[in-house]
C-alpha cells in the first residue's frame, strides 16, 4: 500500500489521519468540499480533490484522480453514503469506515465487537440528520461494510469512543480545560468517578492505518485509550499538564438543583459507564499513547487556540451558587 485517499482530511480526525499516513511514507490525497481551511495547502506531499462525497460523480472523480490503495472515510454519516463508497472503491486494498462506539445498542461493560448488539436503524433514521439517530446510522453503515466484505470488498470499520486531542472543533474537552485554566474550584457532577471512555485522536489515526494494513475485511475494531480515567482523574491530568492545582468539588442532584442545574448540563458526564474493549485492535500491533503525553499535547494546543467550550458552559454563576451551598455543609 502506497497511496491513501482520506475523505475529509482537514479538521480533526481526518487531519491527524493525513499526518499519520504521511509519517508512514504514504502518498496522500484528501477529498472534500473545501469548506474548511486546508492545513496541507502548502504541503506538496498532499493532493487535494475538491468535491461533494454525496455526489456520485464527484466520488468517482476522486477515485480516478487518486487511484488509492487505501481509503479512509471520515465523513460518512448516512448508510447510503457508505453504500456508494464501497461500490466506487470496491477494488482498493482497504476501505476503512469510521463508525462510532454509539453504534452499540446495549449498555454493558465493556462493549465488545461482535458480542454487544448494535443499534437498529429504520429507513427514516437512515435518512435523518439529527444527533438522536447518529448511533443508528453509524450501526447501519457498519452493516453495509459487513455486506460489502461478503461480496469481496476489502472493507472494515473502526469504532472510536469520545475522541479528544489537538484541533478538536467539537470543544467538548475544551470546556473542562478552560475550567482548569481559569478557576481554582471546579464543579463536577456526582462523585467524580463516572467513566466515559475517550480516545486520543492520534491513536484513532494510527488505528485507522493499522486496520488498513493489518485488519480483516468485514471486521470492526474498537479504539479508545488503553487506560481509562474517571472525570475527576481527567481533570487532574489536565491540571498537571498546566502545572496548576484545582479543587474538584462534587455535587449531587440536590446540590446542582440549587443552581438550576442537573448532570445533563455537564459535557462528558454519563451516569452509566461507557467502556469499549480494545483488545482486538491491540492484537494487530496497535498501541495507545500514554495519558500524560496525550493530555499534555491536548493542553498545549488548547492554550494556543481560541476554543473555550463556551457552548457547553452551564453558567459559572449557577456553579457559584452550588459552591456556596456546599460551603455551608
From TrEMBL:
<dbReference type="InterPro" id="IPR036291">
    <property type="entry name" value="NAD(P)-bd_dom_sf"/>
</dbReference>
<dbReference type="Pfam" id="PF01370">
    <property type="entry name" value="Epimerase"/>
</dbReference>
<dbReference type="InterPro" id="IPR001509">
    <property type="entry name" value="Epimerase_deHydtase"/>
</dbReference>
<feature type="compositionally biased region" description="Basic and acidic residues">
    <location>
        <begin position="107"/>
        <end position="116"/>
    </location>
</feature>
<comment type="similarity">
    <text>Belongs to the NAD(P)-dependent epimerase/dehydratase family.</text>
</comment>
<feature type="domain" description="NAD-dependent epimerase/dehydratase">
    <location>
        <begin position="4"/>
        <end position="224"/>
    </location>
</feature>
<feature type="region of interest" description="Disordered">
    <location>
        <begin position="107"/>
        <end position="139"/>
    </location>
</feature>
<protein>
    <submittedName>
        <fullName>Nucleoside-diphosphate-sugar epimerase</fullName>
    </submittedName>
</protein>
Amino acid at each position: 500500500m502506497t497511496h491513501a485517499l482520506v475523505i475529509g482530511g482537514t479538521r480533526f480526525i481526518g487531519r491527524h489521519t493525513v499526518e499519520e499516513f504521511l509519517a508512514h511514507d504514504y502518498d496522500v490525497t484528501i477529498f472534500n468540499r473545501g469548506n474548511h481551511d486546508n492545513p496541507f495547502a502548502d504541503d506538496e506531499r498532499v493532493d487535494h480533490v475538491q468535491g461533494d462525497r454525496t455526489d456520485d460523480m464527484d466520488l468517482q472523480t476522486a477515485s480516478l484522480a487518486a487511484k488509492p490503495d487505501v481509503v479512509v472515510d471520515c465523513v460518512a454519516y448516512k448508510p447510503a453514503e457508505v453504500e456508494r463508497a464501497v461500490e466506487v472503491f470496491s477494488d482498493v486494498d482497504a476501505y476503512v469506515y469510521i463508525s462510532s462506539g454509539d453504534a452499540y445498542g446495549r449498555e454493558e461493560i465493556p462493549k465488545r465487537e461482535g458480542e454487544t448488539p448494535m443499534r437498529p436503524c429504520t429507513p427514516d433514521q437512515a435518512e435523518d440528520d439529527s444527533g438522536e439517530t447518529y448511533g443508528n446510522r453509524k450501526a447501519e453503515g457498519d452493516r453495509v461494510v459487513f455486506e460489502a466484505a461478503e461480496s469481496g470488498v476489502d472493507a472494515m470499520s473502526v469504532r472510536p469512543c469520545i475522541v479528544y486531542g489537538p484541533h478538536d472543533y467539537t470543544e467538548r474537552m475544551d470546556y473542562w480545560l478552560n475550567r482548569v485554566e481559569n478557576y481554582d474550584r471546579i464543579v463536577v457532577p456526582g462523585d467524580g468517578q463516572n467513566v466515559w471512555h475517550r480516545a486520543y485522536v492520534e491513536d484513532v489515526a494510527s488505528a485507522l492505518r493499522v486496520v488498513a494494513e493489518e485488519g480483516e475485511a468485514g471486521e470492526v475494531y474498537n479504539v479508545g485509550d488503553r487506560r481509562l480515567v474517571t472525570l475527576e482523574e481527567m481533570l487532574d491530568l489536565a491540571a498537571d499538564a498546566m502545572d496548576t492545582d484545582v479543587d474538584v468539588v462534587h455535587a449531587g442532584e440536590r446540590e446542582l438543583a440549587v443552581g438550576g442545574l442537573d448532570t445533563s448540563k455537564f459535557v462528558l458526564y454519563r451516569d452509566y459507564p461507557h467502556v469499549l474493549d480494545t483488545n482486538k485492535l491491540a492484537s494487530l500491533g496497535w498501541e495507545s499513547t500514554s495519558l500524560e503525553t496525550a493530555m499534555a499535547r491536548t493542553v498545549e494546543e488548547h492554550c494556543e487556540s481560541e476554543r473555550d467550550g463556551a457552548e457547553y458552559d452551564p453558567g459559572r454563576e449557577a456553579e457559584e451558587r452550588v459552591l456556596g451551598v456546599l460551603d455551608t455543609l
